[in-house]
Amino acid sequence: MARLIVYYAHPGHRYSQVNAKMFARAQAVDDVTIVDLYAEYPRHNIRVDIEQKRLLDHDIVLFQFPLFWYSSPSLIKEWEDLVLEQGFAYGSGGTALQGKSMMLAITAAGPEDAYTKDGYQHHELRTFLTPFEQTARLCKMSFIPPYVLYGSLKAAAADQTGGHIEGYATLLQALRDDRLDFAAAAEHDVLHHDTLPILAEV
């Protein structure tokens, strides 16, 4: 069994149409550590000692958030800046995270075809997530392709998010139970709920 921690970050949690439901569903998954960053650090006064201990105590670190201006909400960046210190996460002697894994669970308001060279975003979603992938690499962590819901606002309005939310629970359980085929997952740019039954076979 892998030790999984989920960091949830949504500054507008009470207005969330998808992430709040994903967060609630994640809380119902046994033996997974769940941290609501905005609830825990409303003034961004991040406790580095606590967060570094959490990282040491877990094997897989998953950040859940809505895509904000092609990146994460600001608190995650603040968390990275403070917690991933030289000598701890990278640099000389910085091997605390070596061999661990990082993953993202993201909602994007734009449709999937927007995140192509010919779409109005002009780049694939993974291009915007390069800083996270490179952070994992610098910290000697593996980067698992992100779990993504495109067109999240329209999906929520049409009440079509149930499969994604249940897929999220399936993903967390698979990560916790060491049932996710990392090699098969790596063949995908992003993961969707309909690919998880294949990737998470017992």
Write the layout of secondary structure elements.
Layout (H helix, E strand, L loop, with lengths): L3 E5 L10 H9 L5 E4 H4 L7 H9 L3 E7 L7 H10 L17 E7 L17 H4 L1 H9 L3 E2 L3 E3 L2 H6 L4 H15 L5 H4 L10 H4 L3
Helix pairs in contact: 1-8
Could you write a compact summary of the structure shown?
The chain has 202 residues and is an alpha/beta fold. The chain has one domain (4-199): Flavodoxin domain (Rossmann fold, 3-Layer(aba) Sandwich).
Describe the structure.
The protein is of the alpha/beta class and about 200 residues long. The protein has one domain: Flavodoxin domain (Rossmann fold). It contains ten helices and six strands; from the N terminus they run βαβααβαβααββαααα. Strands 1, 2, 3, 4, 5 and 6 form a six-stranded parallel sheet that branches. Helix 4 links the parallel strand 3 (about 60-65) and strand 4 (about 100-105). The protein is globular and about 50 Å long. The chain starts with a strand and ends with a helix. The model has no long low-confidence stretch (mean pLDDT about 95).
Notable features of this structure?
202 residues; alpha/beta; Rossmann fold
